[in-house]
């Protein structure tokens, strides 16, 4: 069981780090270097804004690496999406025999699916993951197929899972970017957010077990609210973390790190101190005007059907840009909310989001005789 850091030296380092970033000048992520604003010990790292999906910092972000127990993020997600949390799961001999980090489950033992999810995410139980996989899909092999399918569906392009828990296996790999993408998707699930932010919990079975979350940031970093540690010899010390401050949630990923806790705090503080979340387009905001032919009015406003947020540096060097595709004209009648085009928001050439452009009001068609006379008049000119 891992305990929260209690040494004065560690806490002092965190305090000094926060003081440093509060005084530091804003720095672009692309300008960071190992001799620049801060040093990341991890071999690969990513900082992502949870709302927009924008990557604010990256280091070897697409380098394929073993993810260790951060694999369990996908396992928990599929369990939440495909299972009944209160359904009883009977632990198989195969699941009970799974080695290394475990809940010490016993063959025939019965726990709820919810308890197994907590066991997988807090205590990093490898046996709990196999029990989940067998319950959802019959076999772990079938469950892994679902894991890989889900990864591709949500945009994790360089991920290949071979098991449900992250134990070393040939070809079991992902990237820092993909883990951030998977985590961003998972954090949309209310129950997932609750699980990964839980410090400790008791679960049943044949014996009562008290689970303590292996994520030390939940104790040492005030804004932390998830997500999952991972540790193997090959993967090294890994951490996918999330933190929320002033309504903004960030996701950091560090793989093969010499100090996953401090690396993650550095990334979070960099993101909070140097970037702002802005509304690039407001819902209902007029973007363009479209001519209406044969209508009782000559034009309608094309307004955004949804709002789009973007993250920009506080130093103001980059601002959101709008790319608009719009119909030149439409023929009446026009219905309020009718599709007229699309607006896309870009920051530094990267697409952040898009929204439909729709008519702000309805326009009826002119009287048929008047339309005819107008056309006839134009014809005889």
Automatic annotation (TrEMBL):
It comes from Pelotomaculum thermopropionicum (strain DSM 13744 / JCM 10971 / SI). It is an enzyme of class 3 (hydrolase). Residues 1-24 form the signal peptide. GO terms for biological process: cell wall organization; peptidoglycan biosynthetic process; proteolysis; regulation of cell shape. It catalyses: Preferential cleavage: (Ac)2-L-Lys-D-Ala-|-D-Ala. Also transpeptidation of peptidyl-alanyl moieties that are N-acyl substituents of D-alanine. This is serine-type D-Ala-D-Ala carboxypeptidase. One of its GO terms (molecular function) is serine-type D-Ala-D-Ala carboxypeptidase activity. PANTHER family: D-ALANYL-D-ALANINE CARBOXYPEPTIDASE, D-ALANYL-D-ALANINE CARBOXYPEPTIDASE DACB. Removes C-terminal D-alanyl residues from sugar-peptide cell wall precursors. The gene is DacC. Pathway: Cell wall biogenesis; peptidoglycan biosynthesis. The keyword Protease applies. Its EC number is 3.4.16.4. The active site is at residues 69, 72, 124. Substrate binds at residue 228. Keywords: Carboxypeptidase, Cell shape, Cell wall biogenesis/degradation, Hydrolase, Peptidoglycan synthesis, Protease, Signal. Belongs to the peptidase S11 family. SMART domains: PBP5_C (SM00936). Residues 275-365 form the Peptidase S11 D-Ala-D-Ala carboxypeptidase A C-terminal domain.
């Amino acid at each position: 069981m891992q305990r929260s850091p209690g040494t004065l030296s560690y806490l002092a380092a965190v305090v000094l780090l926060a003081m440093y970033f509060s005084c530091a000048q804003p720095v672009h992520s692309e300008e960071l270097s190992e001799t620049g604003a801060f040093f990341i010990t991890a071999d690969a790292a990513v900082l992502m804004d949870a709302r927009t999906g924008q990557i604010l910092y990256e280091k070897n972000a697409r380098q394929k690496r073993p993810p260790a127990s951060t694999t369990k993020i996908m396992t928990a997600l599929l369990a939440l999406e495909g299972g009944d949390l209160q359904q009883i799961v009977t632990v198989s001999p195969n699941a009970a025999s799974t080695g290394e980090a475990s809940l010490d489950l016993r063959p025939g033992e019965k726990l709820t699916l919810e308890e197994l999810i907590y066991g997988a995410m807090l205590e990093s139980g490898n046996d709990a993951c196999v029990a989940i996989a067998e319950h959802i899909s019959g076999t772990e092999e079938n469950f892994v197929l679902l894991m890989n399918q889900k990864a591709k569906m949500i945009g994790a392009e360089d991920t290949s899972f071979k098991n449900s828990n992250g134990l070393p296996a040939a070809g079991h790999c992902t990237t820092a970017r993909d883990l951030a993408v998977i985590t961003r998707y998972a954090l949309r699930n209310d129950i997932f957010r609750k699980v990964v932010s839980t410090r400790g919990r008791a679960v049943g079975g044949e014996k009562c077990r008290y689970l303590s979350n292996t994520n030390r940031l939940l104790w040492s970093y005030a804004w932390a609210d998830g997500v999952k540690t991972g540790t193997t010899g090959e993967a090294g010390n890994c951490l996918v973390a999330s933190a929320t401050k002033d309504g903004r949630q960030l996701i950091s990923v560090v793989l093969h790190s010499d100090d996953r806790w401090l690396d993650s705090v550095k990334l979070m503080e960099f993101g909070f101190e140097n970037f702002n979340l802005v509304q690039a387009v407001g819902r209902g905001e007029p973007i363009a005007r479209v001519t209406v032919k044969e209508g009782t009015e000559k034009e309608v406003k094309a307004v955004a059907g949804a709002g789009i947020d973007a993250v920009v540096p506080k130093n103001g060097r980059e601002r959101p840009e709008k790319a608009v595709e719009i119909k030149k004209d439409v023929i009446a009648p026009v219905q309020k909310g009718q599709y007229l085009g699309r607006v896309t928001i870009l920051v530094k050439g990267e697409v952040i989001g898009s929204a439909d452009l729709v008519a702000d009001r309805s326009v009826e068609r002119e009287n048929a005789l008047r339309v005819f006379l107008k056309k006839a008049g134009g014809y005889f000119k």
